[in-house]
Here is the input.
Amino acid sequence: MPSRQISRKVAFLIANILLQGWLFLLLVTLQLFWRYETRWSSVLRSDSLLITIGLLGVFCAILGVFMVREIIRMADVEEEARLQALQLEEAKEFNATLSAYRHDFLNHLQVIGGLIQLGKPQDAYEYLAEITAQLIGANKNRLVSQPEVEALLWKKKALAEEKGIRLQFNIRSNLGQAEISGLDLARILGNLLDNAIYAVKDLLPRDRIVTVSIEELEEGFRLAVHNWGPPIPVKLQRLIFERGFTTKGAEGNGLGLDIVATLVQKNRGKINLVSTEAEGTTFTVWLPRRDGNLAVTIWAGPGLWL
Here is the structure.
């Protein structure tokens, strides 16, 4: 359940307790009046005690409202902190990938510098030519044009293989003309892949398959992440995109799909979710080209659209 909803329930519970306390105090006071009517007759005529009780009730009401607002504010601060922590973790992963590239680059420079110091410029030239050829070949074989996304896909593939999960790529477009930054795209795919890998981790080995599909169609760019994990109940399909909602228990933070939905909306895209026993679960993200908008016809298909 989203933490904001939990905090609202706690806040209303506290307000209810304060109200019941006030009513209890009022009943006790009336009972005392009834028992000691003669002694309190002068007080009743002056209404001073009733005024005091009334002021106490107003104070309790104001205190209840303040506590409700404060609890909700603290919940919002906590959720924002969790979101920032998740973004920091994603940035650390990307930085680790860049550090690996930097390490390799420095090693190459050291080899070239060493060959030159040994008076072997020809060997240094051949070594540099070999590295250049490898880089050109790797560039031709790149899955997508954004280096952040490229690094993310291969890292997720390695992590999946460590868990006995096959991460398959069916990529027919390099997304070069997509109207989205590499960082936003990496965050979208990263969260969808994390969920898919989690969904299949406890399946039989033959069913531990996650497929990433990327293609360019007339309607726009289509990115899909499919897995054969347990289907998501229809009543939960919209809830899973709410911040704080998770089906992973203590292992989840309820931020991943909220981030996906926010980034897709920011980039003028659409999300589709189809999850059935027969078809498995597929999260599909549609993104526009730089020179156009998404075709309206795409969200006429089955499943949940956001």
Summary: The chain has a mean pLDDT of 76.
